From TrEMBL:
<keyword id="KW-0732">Signal</keyword>
<feature type="signal peptide">
    <location>
        <begin position="1"/>
        <end position="22"/>
    </location>
</feature>
<protein>
    <recommendedName>
        <fullName>Cell envelope biogenesis protein TolA</fullName>
    </recommendedName>
</protein>
Length: 190
């Protein structure tokens, strides 16, 4: 199943990669219809599954649709904002899939899995923000770039710190205190 979804993703990506220039309105409509048809086909493949496997499959299908639509929009109206939207959409889709996969776990392992997924999403979104500012940057926007990098690093650090603290919850007493202190030091938290 994952192989088929990966092949489908690759096919959609290749279809979009072939057109470096902006799409015409007609091409956009045709590609949009294709994305919707691919989503319906992917969603139909999930019908034979049950329980969490079905939820994961549906999250993967929905994520692929959202990413394909964001890529299509970026081709139709190229801009740094649309490029950022693609990255954000990919981050959200990966998070939704990871969160569904975490449902197979229980207790602290599930909590750690969710925190790791959130940290990955936060990191990806922060990188997308920096990339957008980079694309828009010129000599007058150097201050904005530094601020965007600082904000992105702070967001990443906080998310990674929360994930590290969650890992400490499996410990008790002095070991837990040491783990939490190590996390504070590693991520520069007070």
């Amino acid at each position: 199943m994952k192989t088929k979804l990966a092949i489908l993703t690759l096919a959609v990506s290749c279809a979009f990669a072939g057109n470096a220039m902006a799409l015409t309105k007609e091409e956009y409509k045709v590609q949009k219809d294709r994305v919707e048809a691919d989503y319906k086909a992917g969603k139909d493949k999930c019908l034979s599954l049950s329980a969490n496997a079905k939820d994961i499959c549906q999250a993967e299908a929905k994520g692929m649709e959202k990413v394909a639509k964001a890529e299509l929009e970026a081709q139709y109206k190229p801009s740094p904002s649309h490029d950022k939207k693609i990255r954000d959409t990919k981050a959200n889709a990966a998070y939704d899939i990871a969160k569904e996969k975490c449902d197979d776990l229980a207790g602290n392992a599930k909590d750690v899995c969710v925190k790791d997924a959130k940290a990955a999403r936060t990191t990806a979104k922060a990188d997308a923000k920096v990339s957008k500012v980079n694309a828009e940057a010129n000599k007058d926007k150097a201050d904005n770039m530094a601020t965007a990098r600082k904000d992105a690093n702070a967001d990443k650090n906080e998310a990674l710190y929360k994930a590290a603290r969650e890992r400490c919850d499996t410990m008790a007493g002095a070991a837990k205190d040491g783990c939490q202190n190590d996390a504070k030091v590693k991520f520069g938290m007070k």
